[in-house]
Amino acid sequence: MSTNPNDLSIEELEKLLAEKRSRQRFSTRMESKSSTLERGAQKLKAAGAARPAVNIVRVGNRLLLAVEVFAVAGLLIAGLAIFFRLQELNRESVAAQAGTGAVRAAGLEAAATLPGASQPPSAGTPERFKGVLKQVVPVAIPMPGPQQPVRIVIPAIHVDSLVVEGDDWEALKKGAGHRVASVNPGQRGNMVISGHDDVFGEVFRYIGDLKPGDEVHVYSKEAKFTYAVRNRRIVEPTDVSVLQTTTEPTLTLITCYPYLVDSQRMIVFAQLAK
What we know:
Layout (H helix, E strand, L loop, with lengths): L9 H95 L3 H5 L14 H7 L15 E6 L4 E7 L10 E3 L10 E6 L20 E6 L3 E12 L13 E9 L6 E9 L2
Parallel strand pairs: 2-3, 4-7
Antiparallel strand pairs: 1-2, 1-5, 3-4, 5-6, 6-8, 7-8
């Protein structure tokens, strides 16, 4: 075939042009595939180079998190240890003060803790104080008088009990006990009556169920006095502030809490009804 374009027919020129275009398209496709493969290889290479760095960062973050968790756990454990140690020191301090008071004045063992305990006094006395406390002269129980309380009735919880004078272990075996030196029914001041919640008849087992407004009737040999419940509170056995005198005629009921555990005291406060 002649290579001179002037010697070629139109059909031959069109055929040559078509072949040229076909070769160009083929060349373009190959170049495109080659470029695509090259870019893919570059991406794989870059990903392979970056992966170790990503893994190192991830591992580092996890190690830091573990260190932080252990640090927080250590602080919590240390805080709990300090808290329990302080509690122990406080208990030792209370015990030491109670023992010192027993040496200083008669009857201070009873004054150091609230009445109503469900175990005899010696059961909760530190061993080093038992010999000292035997020397304590018990507070003299006054002769019964016409104004002293002799009976307590609480309709809301079905209580109807004898009230004896005194609130020590022996007195509370007989029923509810009127604290020596607290006021008599109807008088201005704080009348304190205690009773057990889980021994010796469980006289005051349910006083924690009393609500504001519930009535408490206290009888002397001469009259009946009605008190209305104001509120109640759970305190530690050493919180003798509830025994303090008041300016109004009030009634304070005391028993152990919780039932069969007796580590605290349930206090119910009432006021003389007008």
